[in-house]
Amino acid sequence: MQKAYIRALYDIMQKDKRVVSLLSDSGTDYDTMMASEMPTQCYNFGIAEQNKVGIAAGMAMLGLIPFVYTSGAFLAYRSIEFIRNDVCYQNQNVKIVGMGSGTSWRTLGPSHHTTEDFAILRAIPNLSILSAATPIEASACVRAAYNHDGPVYIRLGMSGETEYFSEGYTVELGKAAFLTEGKDLAIISTGTILCEVMAAAEELKSKGIQSTVINMPSLKPIDNQAILTAARNCTAVITIEEHNIYGGLGSAVAEILAEHQVAIPFMRIGLTDKFAAGYGTQQEVREQNGLDRNSIASAIATWLEKRA
Predict the structure, then answer these.
(1) Could you tell me whether strands 177-178 and 211-215 are parallel, antiparallel, or unpaired per DSSP bridges?
(2) What percent of the chain has pLDDT above 90?
(3) Can you count the helices (H) and strands (E) in the chain?
């Protein structure tokens, strides 16, 4: 996914000299290549994320379009005051790109996980939030952020994501994508956990449970109509996210259902007010926290049995 991000940004930077890349010692060959070809559009600020965000706001005031890129945990948590006051309060055209969504930084533990970023950032006015599930969707999120005049936060995975979209796929702020259709459940997810969700939906299908799977790349604005349509056409709604269930996708969907007075069985799957436990591969960390395909399918099946 990181390669997809850099390639998409590279293409945009070549066509629009206003677009600049702000890094924090990322240290990849792609960064070196971009800096050698476009030295006036690439800046490395080292481990100084707060300063980088503040300077990005100043660059935007001068007519540039900064893409601020580093670990999501350091952007969403360490730089929050600068995102709020310098970028969003001033409504500057800054794109904040956090790599390492959810538990992607699997071996580095909770200090590097971004499992509360939606909750923190969703409350900030003027900030749009995009969450990519696959490399193609990551590229589409970059293009959508570039075309939007205003602050955007993009949440990216690290590598190895399963692809579900074709070249030419586009992301639109406030729009979701229906991937499967089924009358029993509406499963709404965001980000790279989509691969676990799709596999869980297949397992449920083998048990006779048909699911509508909705991928939600835009967390803010969110697709109200897609959520309400799913609630009308299915008998239950479930949200799945690699994030704390408080303040994230599940909370956003619950708000919409409540505000539109939709009475429907509703379940949130994610981290339940806790930090992710364990270390290893991302798959192993997901398994230790009940966010793998088997655990998701089992949790849904058990919930449905209790409701029967």
Answers:
(1) antiparallel
(2) 89
(3) 12, 12
**Residue 267 to residue 161: CA distance in whole angstroms:** 25
Q: Collapsing DSSP states into helix, strand and coil, what is residue 163?
A: coil
Determine, yes or no, domain membership for 85.
yes
pLDDT at 274 over 80: yes
Look up residue 128 and give its two tokens: 């749009």
Segment 23-64, tens digit of pLDDT: 987 656 677 788 889 999 999 988 899 999 999 999 999 999
Q: How far apart are CA 244 and CA 234, in angstroms?
A: 25
Peptide bond into 39 cis (omega under 30): no
Helix ranges (DSSP H) in the chain: 2-15, 29-37, 49-61, 72-73, 80-82, 117-122, 135-147, 194-206, 224-233, 249-259, 282-288, 293-307
Token code pair at residue 192: 């790279």
The DSSP 8-state label assigned to residue 158 in this structure reads -
Domain hosting 230: range is 177-307
Give the pLDDT score at 28. Answer: 64
Judge whether 12 lies within some domain: yes
Q: Are residues 207 and 301 in the same domain?
A: yes
d(CA 209, CA 187): 12
Residue 38 maps to which CATH number?
3.40.50.970
Tell me the DSSP string of 47-89.
Answer: S-HHHHHHHHHHHHHTT-EEEEEEEHHIIIIITHHHIIIIIIT
Edge-to-edge order in the sheet of strand 152-156: 42-44, 19-23, 65-71, 95-99, 152-156, 128-131, 218-220
Provide the whole-model pTM. Answer: 0.96
Together in a domain, 141 and 223: no
